[in-house]
TrEMBL record:
Coiled coil: none annotated. InterPro entries: Ald_DH/histidinol_DH (IPR016161), Ald_DH_C (IPR016163), Ald_DH_CS_CYS (IPR016160), Ald_DH_CS_GLU (IPR029510), Ald_DH_N (IPR016162), Aldehyde_DH_dom (IPR015590), OHmuconic_semiald_DH (IPR017628). Belongs to the aldehyde dehydrogenase family. Pfam families: Aldedh. It comes from Sphaerotilus montanus. The lineage of its organism: Bacteria, Pseudomonadati, Pseudomonadota, Betaproteobacteria, Burkholderiales. Its EC number is 1.2.1.32, 1.2.1.85. Signal peptide: none annotated. The active site is at 252. This is Aminomuconate-semialdehyde/2-hydroxymuconate-6-semialdehyde dehydrogenase.
Amino acid sequence: MKQYRNFIDGRFVDGIRRFADIDPATGRQVAEVHEAGAAQVQAAIAAGRRAVQGPWGRSTVTERAAMLYRIADEIERRFDDFLQAEIEDTGKPVSLASALDIPRGAANFRVFADILKTAPLESFRTDLPDGAQALNYAVRKPLGVVGVISPWNLPLLLLTWKVAPALACGNAVVAKPSEETPGTATLLAEVMQAVGLPEGVFNLVHGFGPGSAGEFITTDPGIDAITFTGESRTGSAIMRAAAEHVRPVSFELGGKNAAVVFADCDFKAAVDGVMRASFLNTGQVCMCSERVYVQRPVYDAFVKALAGRVGSLRMGDPRDAATTHGPLSSAEHRRKVLDYFDLAREEGATFVAGGGVPALSGPFSDGHWVEPTIITGLPETARCQREEVFGPVCHVAPFDTEQEAIALANDTSYGLAATVWTRDLDTAHRVAQSMRVGQAWVNSWFLRDLRTPFGGSGLSGVGREGGLHSLNFYSDITNVCIRI
Ligand code: NAD
């Protein structure tokens, strides 16, 4: 059986216990994962501290940018290994993992190398009352040892989205991937070793949250900052741990995102776009649209067309290029999603498409599959309209006026993403800017430029990453003021 070990101070080490890595498409074990104990997490943090105090902490921008390019090149050289590990961990279709997850894993390193090389320093010339002047300029320095905790839905993409800028800024990291998706993270550790990243700069520990590696990272005073992507209530627990030693946090959390479709939209593009926004990665993308609001004149036609498109999604072997819909990440997560379907029925929903478990044959009969599902008819107060399901489901409801659509979209304690579909330029700007979210897309969804701010409002997160926002979070900034 394949072994996924911890990577501490430049070496792969066994854990204190082992747990199973399950392929969600088949329900079968694909690897044994070595859970790191408290002493191993401490050793990883101590190794990180030594690395930051050593040559890595004093390395130049040019040296670090070159290292980030080497990491990106090595990920690309091992593209197929990453692809297989991603598919085994998540069951996601090869068409998706090969176009999104693995290329973005490499791109995250390249983009942050470029941003680092071109990032300006803040500088102000200050006029003083006596006629003299002062020159202020801010310099970025490493924060120290950064704890990186990531989820299972886009495992490599989201881990590297944080590791790359943290390394770019000269930090050491102690990273913990989700217990459900340890594969690509372990390959990333192999990449770090292969490209000669100094020992202790990148450490990887496997395990769970409470009482395990996740909690050991967040409660250790040797961690200087915590960056986390995952559920809002986990963010809340981590924030309490971070408060103890007043450590900065950056959180990318859950969502209950709205799509707003106006009657004047490009109808086909909107149906295709909402279909992607609701069902990509089996609805397991934090930015997925679970609430779709459609202007009344096109509502019936839209629901019908969306149901037709959903019917064309193909489940099955993730390695078959024709497969477009994968399983859910785990048996536990499928139970949660199916419980929400039951709740929706109790809350009065009409199931326009899906709502059940498909019958797959052969090795996939024990996978964690759920049908892509469209529901209608729920009141806005229904729990299924308020809570994040994180599965292949959207609820579609009609609206009449622009003001009503904005109010409906913003009526949530989350605030991650929204999409607006219209041909009218004024409506597009007005409505997109009125969305209380970190990302508002117009006639598109999940279209990313990594230089732009990314994050969430309300329950969806704390802070912004992306571009200079990432460099600022992962740096300690000193302002130098000179009287001249
Ligand atoms: P999760 O919160 O259950 O777990 C995420 C990570 O945190 C895992 O590595 C887990 O082991 C760890 N963890 C759990 N409890 C912990 C604790 N008490 N202390 C320290 N670590 C702990 O999230 P998940 O189920 O893996 O991921 C799905 C969630 O992530 C969804 O809510 C989704 O919306 C969100 N998400 C958000 C974004 C974003 O950019 N905003 C992106 C992807 C996913």
